[in-house]
Amino acid sequence: MLDLRGDPIALTAALVDIPSESRNEARIADEVEAALRAQTTGFEIIRNGNAVLARTSRNRPSRVLLAGHLDTVPPAGNLPSRLENGELYGCGTADMKSGDAVFLHLAATVAEPVHDLTLVFYDCEEIEAAANGLGRIENELRDWLSADVAILGEPTAGYIEAGCQGTLRVVISATGTRAHSARSWLGDNAIHKLGAVLDRLARYQARSVDIDGCTYREGLSAVRVDGGVAGNVIPDRASVTVNYRFAPTGRWPRPCSTSTRCSTGWTCRSSRRTPPRVPCPGCRSRPPKHWSRPPVGRSGRSTGGPTCRASRRWASPRSTTDPVIPIWRTGATSGFRPPRSRWPSTCCGNT
């Protein structure tokens, strides 16, 4: 059984050593549920599919929701875990079994929390949004997602990340005329037509937007190029997928319709659009109700805790169902995946 009261580093390693690729979380959910039932007190614990939820009802003046996903991306030869030079290696150490370990450890060791707690360990976060376990919880157990503030244990290198950028994905397509490359003048190369798109993207200067002490750096990037028929054929079709990450300023980019003629020879269509979130009240001058002091001041510096910064990533569409709930990300590890997922074993106290 998982030892929730022991060393959080060892607990992280134990979680990592339970394979839990998306859609295969049953075993780790079983282990987490059993450990919570055996090693915590004062929690109502339920199971929903491969998600495990637990909450206290101590009539505290406020409630904090601690959320983490149990699944990982597919392993890449990085199981089982191993500890080398003070760093823990293995699939999911950074994203996000270290965060799960901290939340489980807190649930088992903090006897009298100042706030009521809700723990949500959910499935299928690393794949398409429609499969995200929080969507199922929203539909079936909506009241379990009610809280004064939600904290996601995603890797942030010890920072508090506030809000998130929006994302817009657009596919720009070009058409031409197919021909044999030995007689290229008889064709019209669709790939060449996209050269102007790629050139414009390469010259784009990203905006940096400051919102209440959090700096969001926007991005406009080509993330996929498709085209070509064979090595001796002039292509008649090609496309480039563009991803735009934009700050939560209230000015959303207008998406293309299903199919819009956006320039000579190009057709644009939106494939995905997700709204941003503004920084939560905890990163402003007024803290959420019932906090004894602001966790983070207006300057973006914490009052005795980690620094606040803007979240660069898009938040899960099911992070919480109530847009009024302030959401933070905070975790001990880097917010960027290294070649082999790793977690510095000295950072547990930062979460």
UniProtKB/TrEMBL annotation:
Its EC number is 3.5.1.18. Residues 166-249 form the Peptidase M20 dimerisation domain. Its cofactor is Zn(2+). InterPro entries: ArgE/DapE_CS (IPR001261), Bact_exopeptidase_dim_dom (IPR036264), Peptidase_M20 (IPR002933), Peptidase_M20_dimer (IPR011650), Peptidase_M20A (IPR050072), Succinyl-DAP_deSuclase_DapE (IPR010174). The gene is dapE. Keywords: Hydrolase, Metal-binding, Zinc. GO terms for molecular function: acetylornithine deacetylase activity; metal ion binding; succinyl-diaminopimelate desuccinylase activity. The keyword Cytoplasm does not apply. Pfam families: M20_dimer, Peptidase_M20. The keyword Metal-binding applies. This is Succinyl-diaminopimelate desuccinylase. Residues 277-351 are annotated as: Disordered. One of its GO terms (biological process) is L-arginine biosynthetic process. It is an enzyme of class 3 (hydrolase). It comes from the Bacteria.
